Amino acid sequence: IGAAKLVVVVAIFLFTFYVISQVFEIKMDANLGHIFARSALDAAARSTKPPRYKCGISKACPEKHFAFKMASGAANVVGPKICVEDNVLMSGVKNNVGRGINVALVNGKTGEPLDTKFFDMWGGDVAPFIEFLKSIQDGTIVLMGTYDDGATKLNEEARKLIAELGSTSITNLGFRDNWVFCGGKGIKTKSPFEQHIKNNKDTNKYEGWPEVVEMEGCIPQKQD
């Protein structure tokens, strides 16, 4: 009887071990399957994730074009931002923006940045701005964005010089309007790259300022 019991105990032990090992293997297989499934899903997600284009614009620019994206300032709190060819030229983070009109100059042939400046059109003097506008070389891409107020000190001469860069809205730019513009020195037509929103206490997003204006696009490379 003792031997029979021993055989039964051993048999039960072996059967239990077999069952446990089978369940464990199944669980292992399930876990491996889950891991592989997750890897496949992650790979699919990566392949379906929309590609990122220069400056974060919505679609790729064609050959011989420079990608740009820009935004005006938000009230008197957040400065404007100008990006060309994935290079942030001006922003609050870079600490090179200021009240008034912010300007970035870019080489029209190479897309290389040339200069960045801001001119205070509320408490400053328009004369240095006019001299700066006159000094811009032919073939230069000019990007401008307002912050806080970009119009109070603007005079007819300054507005005319900006209009010659391709702007149509500059003649109507008023106190605390938000405006972004991309044109060029020597441009023969009006620029398609311009956004302007009027300061209006009835429609302003912020108490004394309108909402931010943003713009993106592809600037044709200057050809010889």
Quick structural summary:
This protein is of the alpha+beta class. It contains 3 helices and 9 strands, in the order αβββββαβαβββ. Helix 2 (127-135) packs parallel to helix 3.
Order of helices and strands: HEEEEEHEHEEE
Q: Rough shape?
A: elongated
Distance between the termini: 106 Å
pLDDT averaged over residues: 86
Q: Outline the low-pLDDT stretches.
A: none
How many strands?
9
Output the strand order for the largest sheet: 5-4-6-7-8
Task: Please bin the fraction of helical residues.
Answer: 25-40%
Number of helices: 3
Give a verbal description of the structure.
Pfam families: ILEI. InterPro entries: FAM3 (IPR039220), ILEI/PANDER_dom (IPR039477), ILEI_FAM3C (IPR039475). It is found in: Secreted. The structure is a single chain. By secondary structure, this protein is an alpha+beta fold. It has 2 domains: 1-45; 54-220, no CATH class. Helices cover 29% and strands 25% of the residues. It has helices at residues 2-48, 127-135, 156-163; strands at residues 65-71, 81-84, 87-90, 100-107, 113-119, 140-147, 178-184, 193-197, 214-220. The strands form 2 sheets. It has a 5-stranded antiparallel beta sheet, with no helix packed on it. The longest helix has 47 residues, at 2-48.
